[in-house]
Amino acid sequence: MIILLLSLLLFLLLGVPIAYSLGLSALCYFLAHEPGLMVVMPQQLMAGMDSYALIALPLFIFMGQLMNASGITGRLIDYCMLIVGRFRGGLGLVNISSSMLFGGISGSSTSDTASIGSILIPEMKRRGYPNQFAAGLTVASSTMGMIIPPSIPMVLFAITAQESVGKLFLGGVIPGLMVGVFQIVFTLWISTKRNYPQENTKFELSIFLKETFRSSYILLLPIFVVGTVVLGIATATESAGLGVFYAIATGCILTRKLTLEKFINALRYSILTSAKIMIIIAFSKLFIWILAYERLPDDLAYSVESFDLSLFWLMLLMILIILLAGTFIDVSPAILLLTPIFLPIIISAGGSPILFGVVLVIGLAVGACTPPVGNCLNVCSAVSGLRIGIIFRGALPFLAANVLTLLLIVIFPSLVLWLPSLLMD
Amino acid sequence: MKRFHAKLTCFLEGLICISFLSLFVMVILLVGLRYIFNSSISGANEIITILFIYTTAIGSAIAVGKRSHISINILEDKLSQGSAKYLAKLQLALVGLINFIIAWFSFTWISQTGDNLMPTLGATRSVVQISIPLGCGLAALYCITSAIVGLDKIKDGDLNPANSNFNSRDQDHSK
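Above: the input entities. Below: the structure tokens describing the complete assembly.
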């Protein structure tokens, strides 16, 4: 077991891709303990990919890419400008509210950071906002992409935990909105204190209604995708497929910005991105097989049970571990590795798998914004030209919104469980 | 070698794009058939899953060739350009090794279980199992071609680690 974990750490530090680090550490384990079981390696790789439900992942990524290629980012930003631009720190508020809406379309934080950041960070700099504030806010607000449905990490958790995708989607709605509202409050407070600019926009109900109608094709997509899953009209995979169909129709008929070149680029990008995630999932399956073979989840469950912690303290302990793990492990492998270990403990303590799934995703979303393994930070650094450390310092006050949300949903689990039980039980 | 690398990538990308589009069309078709004609295609889910597995296996091999897999570059960022180049070679060797070993053991696994039949299609499991040695074999091949292309660059005096760093191109936007 020590060989498995130490070799994994070594390969990760050497910069070997995460997927292959998991495979190489498994190889070290088999060579040291069970050379006769090496044939398990291809078998578990296949088991990791052989799932109809997982096909939702590339389709959701493709849907987000197509919507982005159809020019929705600019439209979303204009729409949000109309609503919140006139307040102090208007562009910061536009950044957050655009991320809230974009999160409902892309299901991905890094995609959100790249799309919104490439437009708003230069604009915020031009209007006199400090670089650190503009980039930090962009990164922190992009975490909503993972929480607000449809969310790719939620699909991954649902498959790993064998839970309902629809319930997880619904469970993420209120916490996702809470993160957004808290970030808006923090931004207003900071902007008033530092006297950040307001935008010269007027709010008129008639213009607002007109713009809402004009943007309705974007706003309807998340409702359509989540609705088809929740109402049982389609499975998550079929819903993602329908979402892709909707995105193609939007780009070709409504915005007329989806050219063949953009379509092919989005297709190539989506396939390669999903392949990179899928190969991590496949190798994680092999790694988890070894953990189960060594009975680590059972041993850990017995150890934790011996402390006799209440569910509340257990969840707080989990949050600490998830935040720490998210700092060092990427979101997909973290979900695959932590779920089989922690979920049985939570269930045996009487906790809800849906609540744990939402806590896990929110915690790992924070991890995506913290160095050294923060993909959102890397993307934002590429977009803004700032160093990762500077962006992280800028993001810290806003990431507090995520931590505050985590604490509140642990204290009041109904914030997560109310909507799924209302609509699906 | 560079030309072979580029042509292989172009061919495989075309292949997986067609495979993915077929998969998408079948998913839409299944929903349409269910709600409009109250009908379905026998074995369609298995065909979709097979296409998906092949797309993933080949796609991850292409990502090895493009050096765009997700990795942690703490050590690499601290090293000088020359040392980083050699670390990149070590990474390639390790990725090539694990892919070669998995491809090797795949044949034992397929010979043991490949004759089992898939429940609906009735085809043997080996049809889908071959995707593993295919993907891993292609990834190992990409490691060899990348190492050769990289060595040529060393001869030319190009020691920029960005040319052989696993995470340097195609920034990952996956989460």
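Note for the figure: The longest helix of chain B spans residues 2-36.
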